[in-house]
Specification:
The chain is of the alpha+beta class. It has a single domain, classed as 3-Layer(aba) Sandwich (Glutaredoxin), CATH 3.40.30. A four-stranded mixed beta sheet has the order 2-1-3-4. Strand 1, helix 1 and strand 2 form a beta-alpha-beta unit. Helix 1 runs parallel beside helix 2. The protein is globular. InterPro entries: MARS_N. It holds the Pfam family GST_N_5. It comes from Suricata suricatta.
Length: about 100
């Protein structure tokens, strides 16, 4: 797997925290890219963070990436975790 993050991108911090929780599950390469670098070939605008899976598929939603790492770590998500992930996606992200 390869995780693309960018300095100053608001979604990078929660994704890196979730990746830290899932350490040891699978090999993860973390790459820092510029905010204008297009990582996902089929998106028309640059988007980070992005997780490229070994299958070649991409996850480019902060919440989806965090949930994927939680799944890998075996951490059972509860309603409070989902509530905070949704708040981050709908309220915090739009303020950037």
């Amino acid at each position: 797997m390869r995780l693309f993050v960018s300095e100053g991108a608001p979604g990078s911090l929660p994704v890196l925290a979730a990746a830290g929780r899932a350490q040891g599950g699978e090999e993860l390469l973390i790459s820092t890219v510029g905010p204008e670098e297009c990582v996902v070939p089929f998106l028309t605008q640059p988007k980070v963070p992005v997780l490229q899976l070994d299958s070649g598929n991409y996850l480019f939603s902060t919440s989806a990436i965090c949930r994927y790492f939680f799944l890998l770590s075996g951490w059972e998500q509860d309603d409070l975790t989902n509530q905070w992930l949704e708040w981050e996606a709908t309220e915090l992200q739009k303020s950037w």
